[in-house]
Specification:
elongated; 57% helix; OB fold (Dihydrolipoamide Acetyltransferase, E2P); single chain; 5-stranded mixed beta barrel; 8 helices; 5 strands; alpha+beta; DNA polymerase, domain 1; Helicase, Ruva Protein, domain 3
Length: 204
């Protein structure tokens, strides 16, 4: 089964795109939100793919994030929800908002998605509420844990800079400026080096 594709976007349609991989064009179906984020024709795209085999077709469904792909699998696991309807649901709300709506049982909000009726929304909530709640809580805990780690590293770097002779306000400023330029997770060594560089540049 095809799990991912990397190639040039040849063209975009209303709900799909053709991706050229070494001269072979693959038609991949996307949610409307993902389709708007896909690179423009001529540019290279890397997408995650789920292959759905039917008696009369072999369809590819694409995603830019693992979270969207996981939600697609959750949705298609609901009774009477096929891949096309799952993409319709994913087209109506951002991934995080959709997980929240399912976790909180917001049938009315889900029903407002074009192509999703009240009965379908009720079925989605009934079958996915608990799983979505676990996913939402897991995401919050991960974010909180990452924030604590980042705060701890920043505090350590500030202390190290103060020990080197920098004033507390300057150390705070240098660390925040450096942290804003770096990608998480932050390591002590990298943040210390970049903060020192920032502070020295400010003095020159």
């Amino acid at each position: 089964m095809i799990a991912s594709l990397r190639g040039a976007v040849l063209e975009k349609g209303g709900n799909d795109a053709i991706i050229d991989v070494n001269g072979v064009g693959y038609r991949v179906f996307f949610s409307l939100l993902t389709l708007t984020r896909l690179p423009e024709p001529g540019q290279t795209a890397q997408v995650r793919v789920r292959t759905v085999v039917r008696e009369d077709a072999l369809d590819l469904y694409g995603f830019l994030t693992a979270a969207e792909e996981s939600l697609f699998l959750m949705l298609t696991g609901v009774s009477r929800v096929g891949p096309k309807l799952a993409l319709t649901v994913l087209s109506g709300l951002e991934t995080e908002a959709l997980v929240g709506a399912l976790a909180r049982g917001e049938v009315a909000r889900l029903s407002k998605i074009h192509g999703v009726g009240k009965k379908t929304a009720e079925r989605l909530v009934l079958e996915l509420k608990d799983r979505a709640l676990e996913l939402e809580l897991g995401t919050r805990q991960t974010a909180a844990s990452s924030a604590k780690v980042a705060a701890g590293v920043e505090g350590d770097v500030i202390s190290a800079l103060v020990n080197l002779g920098f004033k507390q306000p300057d150390a705070d400023r240098g660390v925040k400026a450096a942290a804003a330029q770096l990608e998480a997770p932050l390591s002590f060594e990298l943040l210390f080096r970049e903060s020192l560089k920032t502070l020295r540049a400010g003095k020159s």
